[in-house]
Design brief:
Helix content: 10-25%
Structural class: alpha/beta
Number of domains: 2
CATH class of the largest domain: Alpha Beta
Shape: globular
Number of strands: 17
CATH topology of the largest domain: QueA-like
Largest sheet: 9 strands, mixed
CATH architecture of the largest domain: 3-Layer(aba) Sandwich
Length: about 350
């Protein structure tokens, strides 16, 4: 791989047949395929996610992101013209104020008023941001914005998923608690509650962090030079118990395994900020690409990501560029399922069983 400063977006491109983009989640959740990769040698093994325990050691620690997806896509009308509008709530900015995406944008000028769910939710545009996103102030007829969205909102599925999701909970992890994400931390979709119990019964610890996933994570890299890309910031939190478990795991020689790129970014952002893992919360715009020095994680469970995305760049930083691109080529050849509802990979030191 060439010098980090000269890495191009196109270096992370790979050919993906459209039929390999998963349109629906596996049933049951943990029946997905699992590509197990030894981080040092790059050797790959084919398995199923329900056998994950076979690749974990007593004393390892899984760190999961417990953020819950907001059913943040709502459809309504402009109050004066009754013309169609679609809102996607991205991030709360103040009491009843949210940053949103909307279409068609030309209808959403400052002062424009919109109605959703036969008047359950009303919104007024208060500002237009430089990137075209809007700030909207909401009023809710009964309850609050979160309960109203649970009634009329739809899951903000990525555009490459074109089939309708019958059950919103299938785009939530079984351990989701803290509502606030614009997209699911998809590596966690493979776990069942029984599987989590079985993992702990084997002496493998489980801890949680929260990172509210913003759509900025999934925005395409437009700059040709990788290092010129700027990430959007996201809110994260590391509880005291999680910080303590990470410290104990390291002291006892266990592996800290991040479930998902969001968990990875949370841990590495905190370590970069403080020089260690400690209980904390804040915002991070950390961008992890080849050349990054990992301070916390020893393993990563993740799905297969879009070509030229920041997520495949993160995986390349952890596994190595050549090994990552080889693994993706193998996954395509073996017809693994890709992206949010697709299969998973587990990368770690010692994955040679």
């Amino acid at each position: 791989m060439q010098n980090i400063d000269s890495m191009k977006r196109s270096d992370f491109y790979y050919e993906l047949p459209k039929e390999l983009i998963a349109q629906h989640p596996a049933e049951p959740r943990n029946s997905s395929r699992l590509l197990v990769i030894d981080r040092q040698s790059g050797e790959c093994f084919h398995d199923r996610f329900y056998n994950l325990c076979d690749h974990l050691n007593k004393g390892d620690l899984l760190v999961l992101n417990d953020s819950r997806v907001l059913p943040a896509r709502i459809y309504g009308v402009r109050a004066d013209t009754q013309s169609f509008i679609e809102f996607l709530l991205l991030e709360q900015k103040g009491e009843n104020e949210w940053e949103i995406l909307c279409r068609p944008g030309k209808k959403a000028k400052p002062g424009s008023r919109f109605i959703f769910g036969d008047g359950l939710i009303e919104a007024v545009i208060t500002d237009v941001l430089e990137d075209g996103n809007r700030i909207a102030k909401f009023t809710v007829r009964e309850g609050n914005i979160f309960s109203a969205l649970e009634q009329i909102g739809q899951m903000p599925l990525p555009p490459y998923i074109t089939e309708k999701l019958e059950d919103n909970e299938r785009y939530q992890t079984v351990y989701s608690r803290e509502i606030g994400s614009a997209a699911a931390p998809t590596a966690g979709l493979h776990f069942t509650k029984q599987m989590l119990s079985d993992i702990e019964a084997r002496g493998i610890n489980i801890a949680y962090v929260t990172l509210h996933v913003g759509l900025g994570t999934f925005r395409p890299v437009k700059e040709e030079r990788v290092i010129d890309h700027k990430m959007h910031s996201e809110h994260y939190e590391i509880p005291q118990r999680t910080a303590e478990l990470i410290k104990q795991t390291k002291e006892n020689g266990g592996r800290v395994i991040a479930v998902g790129t969001t968990g990875c970014r949370t841990l590495e952002a905190a370590a970069q900020r403080f020089g260690e893992i400690r209980p904390c919360e804040g915002r991070t715009d950390i961008f992890i690409y080849p050349g990054f020095k990992f301070k916390v994680i020893d393993g990563l469970i993740t799905n297969f990501h879009l070509p030229e995305s920041t997520l495949i760049m993160l995986v390349s930083a952890f596994l190595g560029y050549e090994k990552t691109m080889s693994a993706y080529k193998l996954a395509v050849q073996e017809k693994y399922r890709f992206f949010s509802f697709g299969d998973a990979m587990f990368i770690a030191d010692g994955n040679y069983k």
